[in-house]
Amino acid sequence: MTAAKLTVGLIYGGKSGEHEVSLQTAFSVMNALDYGKYNAVPVYIDKQGRWNMGETHTAAPASLEALQLNGGESATAEAMSVLWRKLSGQESLIDVLFPLLHGTYGEDGTIQGLFEMMDMPYVGAGVLASSAGMDKAIMKSLFAQAGLPQCKYETFIAAEYEANAHDILGAIEHNLGFPCFVKPANLGSSVGISKAKDRAELERAIQYALRFDLKVVVEEAVDAHEVEVGVLGNELPLASVPGEIVSSSDYYDYDAKYIDGNSRMIIPAEIDSELAENLRELALRAFKAIDGNGLCRADFFVRRSDRAIMINEVNTMPGFTAYSMYPLLWRETGKSYPELLDQLIQLGLDRYNKRHTLQFKRD
């Protein structure tokens, strides 16, 4: 007798600058799922934030375009009536949700909070880790508390800059120097990031970053290799082999990641075993520092002058096509893309089941 298939709800698209990246991720995942184990229900969130639920798939979709669902004006209400069934005492038609959303409203804890309210199991980081992993300023504070080495940085909000730009610019010049990198605190895929080489460029870069977020992080420039490590697990996570990004640009910006196609990934990274083990250990510490679950990719600088390691950031929903860094890191560590999907789904179910043994009120 064969076990019943699990029905996986794949959430993708979203009100985000990374909408198209999410579509690519969803198409890749739906083509790699083992349909002997799973049925897949596509749930497409369009750029206006409307939810569209498709028919159950028992095989991979024919094209990427087939995932861009349009259910009309009533689509969101119909999708929510299915997703919220458990709260009205009905049996859920979906066993586990798999968010494949990148950036705002998908990777920042907002949709994870919705899943918690729905009482639905879901893959990946919870509310806290998602929020902390998106907000670079909060993330850096948690890393500092965990004793993780970082490059020097300054952070401020828009209101502080409007009231006291002169002093903030002076502090950046004094503490970080030029060149430096200016980033919106709460975006992914290098959107809104600029490299500033003098005061004039710094002012322009800050104004540009403030178009995307109300909080800005400015970091010193480090002459370094960019090395990344995948983390997989819940309470007892594992770390992958490290891989190196060789950017086609001056730094790994949006064009270098997604457009020009000339950046390279070296997996495993060409580093000695001691450095690789140190990176893996720091990746696990970073995952625990943000209270991670399921998966993350930890990104590091390895300074060229002395091989010192500095953590840059973690990404709780990294690029996830079959050719993205995170799955490739695990492939080189001995876990295929379909096996990775299996484990992530099981980790989401395990976390849900363990949390449901807890009491949320006194007897």
Rounded radius of gyration (Å) = 21 Å
Number of strands: 14
| Gross morphology | globular
How is the quaternary structure best described?
A: single chain
CATH architecture of the largest domain: 2-Layer Sandwich
Query: Main beta sheet: strand number and arrangement?
Result: 6 strands, antiparallel
Specify the CATH class of the largest domain.
Answer: Alpha Beta
**Helical segment tally?**
11
According to CATH, the fold-level topology of the largest domain is D-amino Acid Aminotransferase, Chain A, domain 1
User: So, the CATH homologous superfamily of the largest domain?
Assistant: ATP-grasp fold, B domain
DSSP helix fraction? 25-40%
Q: Uncertain spans, ≥5 residues at pLDDT below 50?
A: 252-261
How many domains make up the coordinates? 3
User: What is the string of SSEs from the N terminus onward?
Assistant: EHEEHEHHHEHEEHEEEEHEHEEHH
- The pLDDT mean sits at 93
Percent in strands: 15-25%
Distance between the termini: 41 Å
Keywords: ATP-binding, Cell shape, Cell wall biogenesis/degradation, Cytoplasm, Ligase, Magnesium, Manganese, Metal-binding, Nucleotide-binding, Peptidoglycan synthesis
Pfam families: Dala_Dala_lig_C, Dala_Dala_lig_N
Protein name: D-alanine--D-alanine ligase
Catalytic activity: 2 D-alanine + ATP = D-alanyl-D-alanine + ADP + phosphate + H(+)
